[in-house]
Amino acid sequence: MPANILCSSGSGRQTLQLLSADGVAVSIESLRGLCLSTALAVCISISSCWQVLAFTETAQAEVVQGQAELEPTAMQPFRRPVISRSQALPPLPKDFPPLPNLSLPDTKQVMLPNGLRIFMLEDHEVPVVHGTLLMRGGQRASPSNKVGVATISAQVQRSGGTQALPGAQLDEALESRAASIEGGAAGESVTFGFECLTEDTRDVMGLLSDVVLRPAMPQRKLDFFRAQVLNILEHINDDASSIPRRELSQLLYGHGSVYSRRPTPKQIQSLEMKDLKDFMARWERPDNTIFGISGDFDAAAMAKLVEQKFGSWTPAPGQPQAVPPIPTTPLAPSSDYAGKAFLVDRPGQTQYNVALGEIGISLQDPDVYALDVLNDLLNSFGGRLFDQIRSREGLAYSVSGSWTSTPIDHPGLFVGGGETANIADFLRLLKKAFQGVIEDGFTDNEINMAKEQTLNGFVFNFASTDKQLARACIYALLGIPQDYLFTYKAGIEAVTRDDILQAARRHLHPEQQAIVVAGDRSLLERSLSKQGQPFEALDIGFKD
């Protein structure tokens, strides 16, 4: 309900009048000189149920008891009855309706004759449509001698435009509709996504199909992205904080693993347009793709539109390509790294960047729920590592130790570390904290708080339709059951103190973990030699 604006002033003072729904008036008087925003903030802070009747420069508010007499003005020459604020404000609610049960979204699924699977989730709240094509393969499918081809091919395919609309013209067509089309490659997939207003869905869907089915693939774009990646590789070690974790991953998995490898300058320089087109022909096929669409549309009409735009997409001969299998054991023998410290010399650096760890678990491991709770116990604000190493000892601003998320068919890593000026004490206390986990565990109160923290955030998995649909598509692409999120919730709820203790003893081995430290070698040698810690110099150059 719009507020009436009343002003009253005189003798260097100004008066603000507020009126509640039941006729209660509050006068706010102040001396001249304070800003209008301060006055408005005072009005809002009194109660959201008040209507602003007059704006003023204000510093102090008082509730007028009994009969409030307004100073006569041409706008408002009358009196209003008032009562106390305590009588006017409504009581705080004590009872709340029960929250609705969370459930899987009503996703409609259609498969086209060419094998393209469409996942659709309607949401008519705003006139916007989102869509993402997920093609199985991605960086994991890049040949070992062409690491980086998945990422560069997706970038050239999108930025180069289509045969009908070269790059700049495609961008202009999208900008004129406040729409977007993006492309990229992740570990398990190549993706092309769009966003547009409902009224432009047909046009933008046509542009997306041209990007996927009829890309221009200009040579100049390959030259541009090849030079860009080479520049990134040239400066890859400029930031010392990224070195330990990257090198630790290569130690644990081996340099040939798809989860630790990186492109070399020689590989990037050797990439030709034929390499990009061969990769696209092998992996970009409809029977290897899921198309997720959410937003303001009718599902039946959307399915017809997708068939019109993508129905001519013909798969290459043969069955969809199988993603190369990943070994279930690390490629590097554990004896090569267990319990050893590896040093990366950074002359003149006063802080030390540290990462230590070991092979972890896959998503299929029954200990995944207990270790997820343990992650919270170690790393949350006030968690074991934060409390002992940062708060009590002041050895590091940041410190962590957790099991990383992994694909369903491959073990991840446990990685701990941080940044510190006192490397010897930091490593000693970090290992001591991990040892305490497997010897003493945690109290029931600590565990219950960690579980509640995870479970209380469960609802945010359903915060938006596009987020829910993206999860459904990724699960389908990777072969994860659609109800896994609820299986995960039940698993967290069932975790006990003994579950965490036994899982930690099975998977956490502080004395066998490899350590990678980046810092000044001369200082590192003196610090670690005092601890009796052997070390080796680590070559972080590219290995062709």
From TrEMBL:
Residues in Peptidase M16 C-terminal domain copies: 271-453
Origin: domain of life: Eukaryota
Pfam name, any one: Peptidase_M16_C
Domain Peptidase M16 N-terminal: 122-253
Gene3D superfamilies: Metalloenzyme, LuxS/M16 peptidase-like (3.30.830.10)
SUPFAM superfamilies membership: LuxS/MPP-like metallohydrolase (SSF63411)
InterPro entries in the record: Metalloenz_LuxS/M16 (IPR011249), MPP/UQCRC_Complex (IPR050361), Pept_M16_N (IPR011765), Peptidase_M16_C (IPR007863)
Name of protein: Uncharacterized protein
Native species: Apatococcus fuscideae
